[in-house]
Amino acid sequence: MDGSSPLTTPVRGFCLSRLTLMLALSTLVIPYYLHSRALEEPIFDVPGSSAILDTPLLLFQVTRLTCGGFILAVRVNHTMVDAQGLTQFLGAVAELARGMQAPSVLPVWKRELLEGRNQQQLALVVYDKLDEVPGKDTDTKASSVMLPLDNAALRLRSFFFGPREIAAIRAQLPPHLQKRATKFDAIAGWIWKFRTVALAPNPDEVMELLVNVNARGRKAGIPIGYYGNAFAFPAAISTARELCTNPLSYAVELVKKAKNQVDIEYMRSRVDLIALRRGRSPPITAGMYCLSDLTRARFDNLDFGWGKPVYGGPAPQAIGATPSLPWLVSFLLASKNTNGEDGIALLMSLPGHAMDRLVEEMSKLLRLSADVTLLHQPHMFSVKRSAL
After folding, report:
1. What per-residue confidence (pLDDT) applies to 104?
2. What pTM did the predictor assign?
3. What is the CA angle 192-195-199, rounded to 5?
4. How confident is the model over 118-143, as pLDDT tens digits?
5. What is the domain count for the chain?
6. Where in the sequence numbering do the catalytic residues fall?
């Protein structure tokens, strides 16, 4: 292979399946996310659709529910699009379904913008130096973090970060970070630190946080309408000891530093690295964790003529098809809590004992958020009226 994916579509451009399910939408939706067990039957795994080559580019499944609602499930070959590209495509489908003559944003190919430069030495330098980190390929010492191979050993739970929770996280940061840290920086730093605390690994364990950074809007020259993959996963790296004992600002700073690496040259260097690593994947360790921010993809805003969806985002059952994914990957989605408050939802899987610890840390954050809210409420003083 030359590194490209040949496209031949005699009859397999995309597949469409239809299903009627004797369930109502209320049985599928829980706060912040979909109920994964309820989705085990509706999500049909089309045989031969899991590979990269010789597989349909798109699969659509429409499931009708007894309440009159429906589920649109989409499976896409990730070599074609990223999350924002998929949203652009589905948005175009939604606009045509609502009667528009043409999509408001036309597709742009321009794949040459992110072509590699065959500068192998530069590619090696830019690759976060992950290969030099102790505990990687050259280290045969067993990890203190056990990697679950059975999803039954994991507990799935969703967490919600609204304005109060984010304010409580910011309150733990020094003034300069309170102003500079984005919502993602704050949430990612908090999750990385306290997920590590919950797992209680060996203090010398190398913990890696991979954060997805989209190159769109970063002076990369990527035009509006470009729907191909335009993201990278720079890594924040620390030992468990430093991550657990340092203040929260330590983790947040590492997240910001990792994100700030990404520019057009970084993106092209990653392409060079993929070519250099052809046939070999980077090593996956138990200390590795990936946060994928889908808040700007806005799947929840898609309207095919029936209004906005109750939920838009990845299906937990589909993620769980690969045992390591729910353990290693979490998605951040724009969401609302039970009070209708806007915020960010995160779905995470951990072993039971670790999940209990993380829930306790979240409870501490909620108590802190109440204190922060109380601190910023206007003070009310009783007024004694004068007799004059």
Report:
1. 95
2. 0.81
3. 135
4. 655 554 454 444 444 444 444 445 56
5. 2
6. 78, 303
